[in-house]
Design brief:
- The structure is a homotetramer.
- Chain A is α/β, with parallel strands linked by helices.
- Helix content of chain A is 33%, strand content 30%.
- The first copy, chain A, has a seven-stranded mixed sheet with strand order 7-6-5-8-9-10-11, with helices on both faces. Chain A has a four-stranded antiparallel sheet with strand order 2-3-1-4, covered by helices on one side. In chain A, strands 12-13 form a two-stranded antiparallel sheet.
- In chain A, helix 3 packs parallel to helix 8.
- Chains in contact: A-B, A-C, A-D, B-C, B-D, C-D.
- The interface between A and B is medium-sized, with 31 and 31 residues.
Chain lengths: 284, 284, 284, 284
Amino acid sequence: MDKVFRLVVSCPDKLGIVAMVSNMIAKYSGSIREASQHTDFIDDWFFMRYEIGSGLSPFDVEGFRKEFSDVSTGFEMSWRLIDAKEPKKVILMASKDPHCPLDILHRWKSGELNCEIQCMISNHKDMEKVAGWYDLPYYHVPVIPDKKEEAFARINELIEEYESDVVVLARYMQIIPPELCAKYAGRIINIHHSFLPSFVGAKPYEQAYNRGVKLIGATSHYVTEELDAGPIIDQDVVRVSHSVSKEEMIRLGKDVERMVLSRGFRYHLEDRVLIHGNKTVVFD
Amino acid sequence: MDKVFRLVVSCPDKLGIVAMVSNMIAKYSGSIREASQHTDFIDDWFFMRYEIGSGLSPFDVEGFRKEFSDVSTGFEMSWRLIDAKEPKKVILMASKDPHCPLDILHRWKSGELNCEIQCMISNHKDMEKVAGWYDLPYYHVPVIPDKKEEAFARINELIEEYESDVVVLARYMQIIPPELCAKYAGRIINIHHSFLPSFVGAKPYEQAYNRGVKLIGATSHYVTEELDAGPIIDQDVVRVSHSVSKEEMIRLGKDVERMVLSRGFRYHLEDRVLIHGNKTVVFD
Amino acid sequence: MDKVFRLVVSCPDKLGIVAMVSNMIAKYSGSIREASQHTDFIDDWFFMRYEIGSGLSPFDVEGFRKEFSDVSTGFEMSWRLIDAKEPKKVILMASKDPHCPLDILHRWKSGELNCEIQCMISNHKDMEKVAGWYDLPYYHVPVIPDKKEEAFARINELIEEYESDVVVLARYMQIIPPELCAKYAGRIINIHHSFLPSFVGAKPYEQAYNRGVKLIGATSHYVTEELDAGPIIDQDVVRVSHSVSKEEMIRLGKDVERMVLSRGFRYHLEDRVLIHGNKTVVFD
Amino acid sequence: MDKVFRLVVSCPDKLGIVAMVSNMIAKYSGSIREASQHTDFIDDWFFMRYEIGSGLSPFDVEGFRKEFSDVSTGFEMSWRLIDAKEPKKVILMASKDPHCPLDILHRWKSGELNCEIQCMISNHKDMEKVAGWYDLPYYHVPVIPDKKEEAFARINELIEEYESDVVVLARYMQIIPPELCAKYAGRIINIHHSFLPSFVGAKPYEQAYNRGVKLIGATSHYVTEELDAGPIIDQDVVRVSHSVSKEEMIRLGKDVERMVLSRGFRYHLEDRVLIHGNKTVVFD
């Protein structure tokens, strides 16, 4: 089976980036299988994601990596070269509500999400049986009002022990402390059950109901210190009429949450998301 | 051609409303052609819209109206009986941007919007030629920073002279003073170029661009004293990726604005919108 | 807890239907909680669905049922009065693909679908473990090319033994023989993985890929003798660009199938679907 | 103002295409402003669209064109290099229905569509006044049952005289004869008022109404000899319930037609559409 690598690059926009990169890929026998580029003309910033397979002879990854390390410096590039077959290591965090974690687990098992889910962490015991079905270790880490620090110290410990790449907050419902947000910047994905920036914080469906909006939505985003204000990966909405009660909003919203979280998470797993400031470039 | 009337009712929820209303319609030879009902179980409030045609003999409107006036009191009803063929009288207000007013005018001329557009009012001269094409009087009422009161006094005068039922702000871009909002409550429809409550106020596309949202939208709503906070009639969104510039957001948003304003306006013209507190019931 | 009944009526359009029905509900102390009506002006046919709770005293169901049976004859009504709390009995049929049956099962367990799933039937063994998780009997009924009759005789037997109200074909992939289609008319719901009437029959995603459509879809419908041609309950679509491969179409389509099947099935369970000829009225 | 060129390429997939093209652009001082690529792994075919601006010195178009002509032969490339500022020449054809032609004309005048609309051709006189507003020559070419050949000979003559690049059938409603389809392959864009391949031919809304579909749509496509079967550029849909009459379907459909035609036409004008067999690659 052919090896595939993903080269993800962002840097100040300059002449000759594409020529340089594509030449170097050709030089080391790579072939470009999928190419996405974007230039932000306001910030003069360049973004690129290439999927590289083997050409006439196998792609010489190590040779490429070595020379690219040198050359990229001149372009002030931030870059990664990722083996596409290497699954990212993931911790799934949940609270009581099963719809998002179950959806992630089902998509994972059915092969939609190329990753290794390592364990589940929850402040409740409700999802323990589900974790069992999927043969996953389950860590019950209660978050007690005056002892939140202990809980998040334990969570940090688990992320370190598991050497996880990504943490997915599948309706985890607790606020992540600033030091963890900073430490794992761009590596914690949350689903917020509103169309951000509308209805930040608690009970967004109730806020939406009370405002009388005609569409409700959900947003998957990276977690940052400011609540529900991190870089947005994906959003979607569903129509609600006056006849939709708060309870029905919650039911309808679940489907949007599932779609938006799993889509955003998949983009992340496939290295399709590039964070730039508080925004994202998503090469879907 | 058969006469059609619309009976629009809202009142505290009580037993026997439907039986009372449908009996009285039958008694005066009306036949129910279209029926919509809604009960708000939180506020215990009942909403109804019936389209009434003639039964075996013509619907006795005057008889019905007289008896219904008496009976409805016991139900604390707020109600209207409207001749569906009687077009509402409308003033169209615009600024420089032609896409919304042109769309309303085209839909009006092609028969989609049953109303009588009486004139156009604008703080600029840009749309004067368009008004000419449609044989509409055009009132250029400049809004000058220190003399805003004069402008809105003139606008109020025009609404009174024309005895207008509805004022449509087709991207009018000026803030309506509180006294006009109060005087014409439920009769001034605005299009705001964002998915409210996100991005209230000026330059919503720029706000959306800077926040990095993945969908942009528009909202048609009744104007109230608090800016962009009145009862929402309709909303819609369109997907935008990272590659969509501010200018392209404006272009894409225009289509959403057109759809959402014309749809909300049509609902209003067909008496499909019932305002309750700061929310609407829309029997579409 | 208050009892709720659903009165579902269809009949030739006539004067006084609403007055008659609402009077009779009032007479037996019922209160109308939700009301939907539709008149087909081409066929002159009337459709109605009322949710009836108790009024000042409990709704006298038996009294109502008795008198309504008599009176409805004069209106040539086809009608049902259903106890909303009485869950419908359901058989879930699947093949190898788990996404639709799993989704139905998850929504059922989480309380979204008010029904009693009695058992699963499949021509394969793949879903047996899943049935086990949900404590459901699992009938493996292989469909062998020359012995299809045997298989469907067994399936018919199971439906009869279980006295099922509805059969859901959750990507069952076998053609139901005409006699079963006729016997269980309006009681077998299928999900077809295309936007009907496009791409009837086998491999609709491949057909869609080859035609180069820019949206793919799914359709939930009642099964009739003619393949994929029965009354449509619900449909939806998702955008696909040129870059979406056949395999990705299948992945994207799964989410549409899940939504459209579960939505159509829920409408059926809540008696919101009225079949008229080869079309449906769906009071959502 | 900086000159911008579009390089559009399709060819058998081979190693080194991107490197070759990007090198040559760099060699002639071009800078890549927007890049889109696609590989069809079933047909092993490569597609590319680059927007090229000037680099440190102005892009040497003639030098590039000359060398690229030679080099591209080895790749069996079909390619075009287009000056992005050079508006394409367009003939707009209409019948009686004004919504599509008016929408195209409005978007053109407001600057959304970079092209030169040269004239209107119609088999009816209804749109003559509209053409006048926009200062466009109007050719009334009646299509008489036994003399269709004459009409299309005249139309061909006009396309030749005007040296038009594109013909837009904005609800033209007449079948284009095979010889014109062949002669102007990939240059005639039609809007069909259904979600193709459903409801080919006449009265698609009536077909949709009779089938009882829950979404109706529209399709913009290139015209080929087989009716409504050419390469699809864009499609969209709108939800319709049982309560939507045939007349309302037509009204709702108009908005979808406008969107889908103008979007497809814009993609074409910006050289974003590459035809491959009976399918399109659309770099939107």
